[in-house]
Design brief:
Helix content is 46%, strand content 17%. It is an alpha+beta fold.
């Protein structure tokens, strides 16, 4: 285990390299307003964040990551193209795995640039690969935007598509919804009973929690509209399943995805962006011929990403989380931009994990 001084020294070394790439140093406060984070992640974040409060500032959280406060700062100042780097502690509650750190240092690099998103993706990935040179790591890449485009292009109701979009980062729930919308599973018994008992339910509205008769009636209408919608076509479901299963090197993944686009043409713009990113990476010296691409990568841990995603892993140490990870989060700038937006991509490195791997080699 590396001590704090060693971690701080390595973090400083990483930061200097990001500064040399043109990044401005920023240092967001340790305490972040809880409201923003709850709006983004919902109540789920309470299970993995340290929450506190005071009379003046209300509920706050110890910084769970840097990206959200950096985006808020950038959008508030109304800047256009910019690059930032930061180094400091983040805090994550660990209630199930006592061996995982609940406090550790992240060093990050964020790029806000609307001129050439593909070039920005390649810049971030190649800089992180350079920072990690000499370590035996596997790089994984993906693109959440392709799956999002596929869902948005399904021939089904807007409410069903919205539900699937909401659960992209929860694969089991996403699968359950997909099976129901495809007609593969029956309507849950509780829902079937609700649909067949409108009169009784509305008449006894005061006995059903705090819901009014109007709220119950509206809910039933929504459920009836969903029940009346036909199943999603089998060819679309099979194509979506094939898309989520793609796991190949980049050239072969692109080939498979182009075949899948015959049944899911809505993904073609996202595939064109993948082509542009691949060319930009190749121009920066990335070995794209042997770079892994997983269409479902990032679905369990990268909730605010909506495009390119990546991670670097030590396969000799499966007990370790990613040594570095990141991706594109254009939608986050829209959510926090108060009417403004700008394409953005970035990532973080764990200096403590780098030192741990270097210790394994000595």
């Amino acid at each position: 285990m590396s001590d704090r001084s060693q971690i701080a020294a390595r973090a400083a070394q990483l930061s200097v390299r990001f500064e040399a790439a043109g990044a401005q140093v920023v240092d967001p406060p340790l305490l972040q307003p809880a409201g923003t984070l709850l709006d983004l992640y919902g109540e789920d974040i309470r299970a993995r964040a340290y929450v506190t409060s005071d009379a003046l500032r209300g509920e706050q959280m110890l910084r769970p990551d840097f990206t959200v406060p950096v985006v808020q700062m950038h959008m508030k100042e109304g800047a256009e193209s910019a690059r930032y780097t930061y180094s400091g502690e983040v805090f994550r509650r660990q209630e199930q795995d006592p061996d995982r750190s609940n406090e550790y240092v992240q060093v990050g690099y964020e790029v806000f640039d609307r001129e050439d998103p593909a070039a920005a993706d390649a810049e971030v990935f190649s800089l992180f690969a350079l920072q990690l040179r000499g370590l035996s790591l596997r790089a994984a890449t993906g693109d959440i935007g392709i799956l999002m485009a596929a869902v948005q292009g399904l021939k089904t109701t807007e409410k069903r598509k919205a539900a699937l979009m909401r659960h992209i980062w929860r694969p089991r729930r996403f699968r359950a919804l997909l099976d129901r919308y495809a007609g593969r599973t029956a309507v849950p018994e509780s829902r079937a009973k609700l649909l067949s008992s409108e009169g009784d339910l509305v008449g006894s509205a005061t006995e059903i929690g705090k819901r009014s008769a109007a709220e119950i009636r509206d809910r039933i209408e929504v459920l009836r509209a969903d029940a009346a919608a036909g199943p999603i076509a089998e060819n679309e479901i099979l194509a979506l399943e094939a898309l989520m299963a793609v796991r190949e090197t980049v050239p072969y993944a692109i080939e498979q995805l182009r075949d899948i686009a015959v049944d899911l043409p809505a993904i073609l713009p996202a595939l064109n962006r993948l082509d542009e990113r691949t060319a930009a990476m190749k121009a920066r010296g990335v070995d794209v011929e042997n770079l892994d691409f997983e269409a479902s990568y990032g679905r369990t841990s990268m909730e605010y990403y909506d495009g390119f995603v990546f991670g670097f892993y030590a396969e000799s140490r499966p007990d370790l989380p990613p040594i570095a990870s990141g991706g594109r989060y254009d939608a986050l700038t829209r959510m926090l931009g108060q009417g403004g937006e700008i394409p953005a991509v970035g990532g973080v490195i764990r200096p403590d994990l780098i030192l741990s791997l270097e210790g394994d080699r000595s």
